[in-house]
Amino acid sequence: MSETPTELKYASTHEWARLEEDGQVTIGITDHAQNALGDVVYVELPELDQQVNAGEEAGVVESVKAASDIYAPVSGVVTAINERLEDAPETVNQDPFGDGWFYRIEPDDVADLEDLLSAEGYLEVCEDDEH
Amino acid sequence: MSKQTALYSEHLHAGARMVDFAGWLMPLHYGSQLNEHLQVRKSSGMFDVSHMTVIDVQGDGATDYLRRLIANDVARLKSPGMAQYGALLNTSGGIIDDLIVYRRPQDYRLVVNAGTRNKVLDWINLELNEFALISPGAVQVTEEPLSMIAVQGPRAIDHFASVTGVQGLAEMPPFTMLERDDWLIARTGYTGEQGVEVILPDTDAVALWRDLAEVGVAPIGLGARDTLRLEAGLNLYGQDMDESTSPFISNIGWTVAWKPEDRMFIGREALEAQRKAGVQQKLTGLVLLEKGVVRHDCEVHTDAGIGVVTSGIFSPTLGYSIALARVPVAAQGDCEVVIRNRRLSARLVKPPFVRNGEKVFT
What we know:
The complex is a heterodimer.
Chain A: E1 9-10, E2 15-19, E3 25-29, H1 31-37, E4 40-44, E5 51-52, E6 57-63, E7 67-71, E8 76-81, H2 84-87, H3 91-94, E9 103-107, H4 119-130
Antiparallel strand pairs in A: 1-2, 2-3, 3-9, 4-6, 5-8, 6-7, 8-9
Chain B: E1 3-4, H1 8-13, E2 17-21, E3 24-29, H2 33-42, E4 45-48, E5 53-58, H3 62-69, E6 83-89, E7 95-103, E8 107-112, H4 117-134, E9 140-144, E10 147-152, H5 156-164, E11 177-180, E12 183-186, E13 195-200, H6 202-214, E14 218-219, H7 222-231, H8 268-277, E15 281-288, E16 299-302, E17 305-315, E18 320-328, E19 333-339, E20 342-349, E21 354-355, E22 358-359
Parallel strand pairs in B: 1-3, 4-14
Antiparallel strand pairs in B: 2-3, 4-10, 5-8, 5-9, 6-7, 7-8, 10-13, 11-12, 12-13, 15-18, 15-20, 16-17, 16-19, 17-18, 19-20, 21-22
Helix pairs in contact in B: 2-7
C-alpha cells in the first residue's frame, strides 16, 4: 500500500512539498504517483535559479509506460536539484519521499503551502482517481 | 466485460497489475517491468499469451486456400513440424494482421493477434466462402479455445525441459515445432531470446505455469513483453503496421513470397504495382543519442525528409531510448527526433537492437 506521510503537504497533481527548517521547500512526487507510473527511467528537472509557478509544469517524469508532466505545488526560485536522479532515476520508485526528491525552492511566500492538501485530503483525491 | 484467461487467478496470486488488453484482462506487470525485462534477458521468464487467437485450417483444400490467403507461401513448409511468419494482406496490399502458421500432420494451425480476432475471422470466412464456390467443403476453419504460454530467455529451454521432460528442444532450429499429446511446443517467440511457445489445454496451462514458477521462471507482463519485442526489432500490429501500411514499409517485405509467380495471393497485384512505382518509405530502427525517451508519434527529421516514430521505449538492456520509425527510404545515419518541442540527436540503425542479451546493431 502507498505511504502518505502526514507532515507533508500535497498537490492534487501528486507532488509533495516539505517545508525545511531554513524556509526552503523540497518537492517530489508521491508514493501513489511513482506506483502508478511504474519504473521511472528518466527525470527532467527545472534548472537552478529558474522561477517555477504553482500549478505550472516544472519538469517531466518518464517511466517505462509514459511521460508525465510534474507541476510546481508552490511558486518560487529553484535552489537545488536532485542530481542523483540523473544516473539513478529508479530512486524515485525506491524512496519517493526521501532520496527520490526532485528539487528545492525558495518559496515566494511560505504561506502558499497552506493552500495545499493535507495527507488526508490527498488520500481522498487518490481514492477518487481510482473510481 | 473483459475475458479472463485460464491463468487469471495465477496472475492475481503473483501480485499482477491487471489491465484490459484487446478485451482480455491481462497482467501489465507483477511489480517491476524493468526487472521482468532483465529477467528474460538474463535467465528465463514466462508469458501468458492465451489471449492470442488459435485457428486450425484443415481439409483437402487447406494448402491452396492458405496459399491465396497469406502473402508468405505455406507450400514452403515442407513437412509437419515447420512454422512460418507471414502477413494477411487486403487487396491494396495493406496488412490485416501478422501471424505464425504451424504445419501439423493433419492441418495448419494459425496464431493471430487478440486485437484483430474479429476482423481476421471475418476475413478468413469471407475468403472461405469464395473458395467454397470452387471447391465446396474442401476447407474447414475452427477457432480453438486453447491456452498459450511463452517461455523465453537463455535458461528457458532448460527450465521448460526440467519440468516437462521434453528433450531436444535446444537442438531444434527456430521456427520449428513438435507435438506431445495435445501440446504444440514451438521454437518461436517475441523477445529475441531462446525459448518456446506452447499451445495447450487450459488445465494443463495452469499446471505448467505453477511448475515453471517452482523452478524459478518469473512471470512477465505485457509491459516487458513490449520492451523485449522492440529491442528484438519485432513489430507490434496496430502500432508499427496496420491496414494502411504494406509489408514494404513495415520492414517485413521478406515475408512476401514472390515465387512461384503464378501464385495469386491476396494483395499481390497491389504490391507489384507499388514495387514498380517505387517504394517511398521504410520502417527502421532509431537510437536516441541524448537523455529522454522517444515515444509513438514523435516526428523524425532526416536528410531525406520527415518521418515518424511508430514505437519508442527506454531500452532496459541498453540503458537508452530506442524506437522503430517510418522514414523516407533514402534516410540513414544521423537524424533528429522531436520530443516535447525539442529536437534531440538520434541515429537511424538497422534493427534488431538486441539478440540473445547482446547489443547487435552498429
